């Protein structure tokens, strides 16, 4: 069966970050990087500041697929004031939020097959009243899904990880971890592997929280009191779930071959192995949503913005993965 070309929306992220540059470079390399059609959403000046390629400013996203061959299709969301690369502003933060809202709306309405979000600076958004930990939770709310029922998957060619807790102070993690939260993240992950990647019987490895997974309780009791009961519940439901494993020995090559995704207890436990292995092509995929949402694994990189040093491969990988997930969903429900 041949499907019509999928169109994705791609928000540019903070205008002062590397989002505009990696989106423009992705369009430049669209054939070499096998990138499907997308429409960018964001501040036109942030693109022309760092790129002199052709921009097709559109008023109707339906024109984007045809325009894509000749110029970077853009739905313009102008910032109230120009910002220079590397120098984030309040106006830029508002623009990144407005662009995110429009890009997500295009996916929610079915105009686009999914959304890929460019990097935003969380502290800049918090300063303008954004009251979500990150874009993941914002998109979940817009889709009417409880943030507890989505999973933030970081995916690369040989590893997928999901943190149970995401953007919170490390000292609060032990208090927040609970069997129901671990179970909810695990279910979102397992169903997400089925729905987005076509893995019929996904295998989930669950990390411990303490060194040596608690050493039988001598180095911490979260494994025995919280993680093991969650694993037992998930196994009773029929899922292929194992653990808790000491996190330090979960990510070498032969360990990775034994699972389809690793569920980790906190942000860095999940993101450090992924970025160590796959920083250049890592994708952040939100599971548990009615829409497809992906993002590159990197942030705004203000330190190199405007210097033509930003690597577009993670953005390209995010766009390719979003298209692949959308196709899986279209074909298999
Ligand atoms: N999905 C998102 O919107 C994300 C946003 N962030 C935000 O980004 C801001 C900066 O975070 P950092 O921890 O500094 O991480 P970062 O990923 O922005 O930068 C870390 C280092 O990697 C380099 N780098 C990042 N992406 C690169 C690329 N594509 N090509 C070449 N070099 C690259 C940067 O120059 C920097 O040295 C924070 O405010 C954070 O909230 C961070 C991660 C994801
Ligand atoms: N470190 C990953 C990250 O910050 C992703 O956050 P978001 O996609 O929820 O904005």
From TrEMBL:
Q: What InterPro entries does the record point to? A: PdxA, PdxA_fam
* Cofactor(s) the protein requires to work: Zn(2+); Mg(2+); Co(2+)
Subcellular location per the Swiss-Prot or TrEMBL entry: Cytoplasm
- In which pathway does this enzyme or protein participate? Cofactor biosynthesis; pyridoxine 5'-phosphate biosynthesis; pyridoxine 5'-phosphate from D-erythrose 4-phosphate: step 4/5
Pfam families named in the record: PdxA
**What binding details are noted for the cofactor?**
Binds 1 divalent metal cation per subunit. Can use ions such as Zn(2+), Mg(2+) or Co(2+).
Q: Does the keyword Cytoplasm apply?
A: yes
What reaction is this protein's catalytic activity? 4-(phosphooxy)-L-threonine + NAD(+) = 3-amino-2-oxopropyl phosphate + CO2 + NADH
Binding residues for substrate: 136, 275, 284, 293
Keyword Transmembrane helix present in the record's keywords: the answer is no
Q: Which UniProt keywords apply?
A: Cobalt, Cytoplasm, Magnesium, Metal-binding, NAD, NADP, Oxidoreductase, Pyridoxine biosynthesis, Zinc
E.C. number? 1.1.1.262
UniProt-annotated binding residues for a divalent metal cation: 167, 212, 267
The entry's family comment says: Belongs to the PdxA family.
The UniProt record's further free-text remark is: The active site is located at the dimer interface.
Q: How does it assemble?
A: Homodimer.
The job of this chain, per UniProt, is described as:
Catalyzes the NAD(P)-dependent oxidation of 4-(phosphooxy)-L-threonine (HTP) into 2-amino-3-oxo-4-(phosphooxy)butyric acid which spontaneously decarboxylates to form 3-amino-2-oxopropyl phosphate (AHAP).
Q: Which PANTHER family does the record associate with it?
A: 4-HYDROXYTHREONINE-4-PHOSPHATE DEHYDROGENASE (PTHR30004), D-THREONATE 4-PHOSPHATE DEHYDROGENASE (PTHR30004:SF6)
Annotated HAMAP family: PdxA
Q: Which NCBIfam families match?
A: pdxA (TIGR00557), PRK05312.1 (NF003699)
Which protein are we looking at? 4-hydroxythreonine-4-phosphate dehydrogenase
Which organism is this protein's natural source?
Sphingomonas humi
Please state the gene responsible for encoding this protein: pdxA
């Amino acid at each position: 069966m041949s499907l019509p070309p999928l169109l994705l929306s791609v928000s540019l992220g903070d205008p002062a970050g590397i989002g505009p540059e990696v989106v423009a470079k992705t369009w430049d390399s669209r054939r070499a990087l096998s990138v499907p059609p997308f429409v960018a959403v964001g501040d036109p000046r942030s693109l022309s500041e760092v790129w002199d390629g052709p921009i097709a400013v559109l008023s109707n996203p339906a024109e984007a697929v045809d325009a894509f061959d000749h110029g970077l299709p853009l739905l313009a969301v102008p910032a109230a004031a120009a910002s220079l690369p590397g120098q984030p502003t309040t106006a830029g933060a508002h623009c990144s939020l407005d662009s995110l809202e429009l890009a997500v709306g295009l996916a929610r309405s079915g105009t686009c097959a999914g959304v890929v979000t460019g990097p935003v600076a969380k502290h800049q958004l918090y300063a303008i009243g954004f009251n979500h930990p990150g874009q993941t939770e914002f998109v979940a709310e817009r889709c009417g899904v409880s943030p507890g029922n989505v999973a933030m998957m970081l995916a690369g060619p040989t590893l997928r990880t999901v943190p149970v807790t995401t953007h919170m102070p490390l000292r609060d993690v032990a208090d927040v971890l609970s069997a129901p939260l671990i179970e909810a993240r695990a279910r979102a992950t397992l169903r997400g592997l089925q729905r987005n990647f076509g893995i019929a019987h996904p295998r989930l490895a669950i990390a411990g929280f303490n060194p040596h997974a608690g050493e039988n309780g001598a180095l911490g009791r979260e494994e025995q009191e919280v993680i093991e009961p969650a694993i037992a519940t998930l196994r009773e439901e029929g899922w292929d779930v194992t653990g808790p494993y000491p996190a330090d020995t979960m990510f070498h090559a032969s360990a990775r071959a034994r699972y389809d995704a690793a569920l980790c207890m906190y942000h860095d436990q999940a993101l450090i192995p992924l970025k160590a292995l796959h920083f250049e092509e890592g994708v952040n995929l939100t599971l548990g949503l009615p829409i497809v949402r992906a993002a590159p694994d990197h942030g705004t990189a203000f330190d190199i913005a405007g210097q033509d040093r930003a690597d577009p491969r993670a953005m390209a990988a995010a766009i390719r993965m979003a298209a692949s997930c959308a196709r899986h969903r279209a074909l298999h429900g």
